[in-house]
Amino acid sequence: MRKNIVEVKVENGTNEILQHAVDSVHKSGGGSIMIGPGIFEMQDSLHLKTGVKIYGTQGRTVLKKSRCVSSDLSADLGYGHYDVSVKRPDLFNVGMGIHIIDDSGRGFYGTVATITWKDGDKLGIDKMLNHDYARIRHARVSTEFPVISGYYVRDALVQGITIEGNKDENDFIDGCRGGGIFLLQCHGVNLSNILVEKYAGDGISYQQCTRLLIENCEIRNNSGSGLHPGSGSTGVIMRNCKIIKNDNDGVFYCLRVGFTLLENCEISNNGNDGISIGARDTDHIIRENTITDNARHAIYFRKADDVMGGHRNLIEGNIISENCRKIGMGEVFIENVNCDIWFRKNQITCGKKSKYGIVANNLCKRICIAKDNSFVCCKKEKMPSTKSGIFEEIIPKKLSVGPEYVNNNSIRHLGILEE
Fold first, then answer.
1. What letter does residue 107 receive in the DSSP assignment?
2. What is the DSSP letter of 277?
3. If you ran DSSP here, which 8-state letter would residue 408 be given?
4. What phi and psi, each to the nearest 5 degrees, are found at residue 81?
5. What is the CATH topology of the domain spanning 4-65+145-362+396-404?
């Protein structure tokens, strides 16, 4: 049976037009939506649905984030409730996306929801509150939300869309709940040929996801990191992307991300590290990327203990040069305690600020640097160690890393099993 194909042809529209198309295709069993050239004012996210494929017109289908409005609370709010009370209800309308936080309720404790009804100072929402929010802790509600979001979605696609984040008229939203594109507990979603720019947060953030494919995307000039793999996400492929001029890291591996491939990407001119990795981020392949001109390190393995280290990662065939523009002493910097990091066929060139190609602190183990790596203009090939045995040359023949090795054992922490 042929799946539905729905066309959207308007020069100027809103998220409601797009959402109606997505919902109707989803209810009919899945299919495709073809969006013509146009600018869509986003008062709420475009919410993805299982089995729905969205195709924009490359470079001409633009989803623009609306200007943010905000209000303090008029009453304290309780966890699990489905409404909020605000001092300025006149600023809000049914259908708007909102973000609720206070000083202790941020990150995953923040709530992103859609307004479903309005009664006096009360706004009904479609998702329950994730925290208790109190006026004494400066609780507030603002119209911040991902431009495209997916929650519990399987086998969907977004292609050929431009996201204009309008960051100058918006407040920052943390990557645990926001991003130009934000996915939570999504599986088998494909994002391709997408431009995400000027969003007041991360470009693309995904949490607790598996089997994503992110390819041929450009992620630039966002207020947070470019890519934010997080919260146990596993088996994701990120390739052929341009990740440039974001205010924080180019790629920020957050917590317990495993078995990913980051391949053939340009990661340059970001405001902190090119790639930041740690906190049980293990079993990755970082291969054939160009990592240049970032403000701090090209690749930074964050400080951890034996349990929380970013162990078992292959760094292969990358061009690494001219990083540490503002701070840092090494193109690659490995803090305590990260072990079993394998370097193969990389070309590492130190710039004016960086002195060393690879720095590893003294509790690291088995930092394996094969002879086929090339070091250019570095003070020494690697920073001299204060403890023997940190650096080795022989890489194990069998490396069970990357998406190919995802199995039920590697994803059971997410409470799912692959068929």
1. G
2. E
3. H
4. -85, 165
5. Pectate Lyase C-like (2.160.20)
Q: Is 70-142 in the same CATH topology as 4-65+145-362+396-404?
A: no
| The pLDDT value given to residue 380 | 65
pLDDT in the model for residue 389: 66
Residue with tokens 């994701």: 236
Residue labelled with tokens 């020069």 = 11
Q: Identify how many contiguous H helices and E strands the chain contains and give both numbers.
A: 2, 41
What are 17-34's pLDDT values in tens digits? 999 999 999 999 999 999
Q: CATH second-level architecture of 70-142?
A: Beta Barrel (2.40)
Flag whether the pTM goes above 0.85. yes
CA-atom Rg of the chain in angstroms: 22
For residue 160, CA distances in Å to 34, 99, 194, 195, 216 come to 10, 27, 5, 8, 10
Which residue's entry shows tokens 């600020």? 353
> Which phi and psi angles does 299 have, rounded to 5°?
-130, 130
Cα–Cα–Cα angle for 170, 175, 178, rounded to 5 degrees? 55
- Residue 71 corresponds to which tokens in the numbers above? 């209000």
**What is the edge-to-edge ordering of all strands in the sheet holding 12-14?**
12-14, 38-42, 61-65, 162-164, 195-197, 218-220, 242-244, 266-268, 290-292, 319-321, 347-349, 374-376
Domain map (residue ranges) of the chain: 4-65+145-362+396-404, 70-142
The edge-to-edge listing of strands for the beta sheet with 70-72 is 70-72, 140-142, 97-101, 111-119, 122-125, 83-85
Q: What are phi and psi of 405, to 5 degrees?
A: -105, 15
Q: Give the tens place of pLDDT for each residue, 128-184.
A: 999 999 999 999 999 999 999 999 999 999 999 999 999 999 999 999 999 999 999
Helix (H, G, I), strand (E, B) or coil at 36: coil
CA dist 398 and 126 (Å) reads 49
Question: What is the spatial distance between Cα 302 and Cα 308, in angstroms, rounded to a whole number?
Answer: 10
**So what's the pLDDT on residue 295?**
98
Contacts of 343 (CB under 8 A, 6+ apart): 315, 316, 332, 358, 367, 368, 369, 370, 373
d(CA 38, CA 63): 8
- Encode pLDDT of 380-405 as tens digits: 666 655 455 688 889 999 999 999 99
Question: What is the rounded distance in angstroms from the CA atom of residue 12 to the CA atom of residue 39?
Answer: 5
How far is CA 154 from each of CA 48, 77, 151, rounded to the nearest angstrom?
9, 32, 9
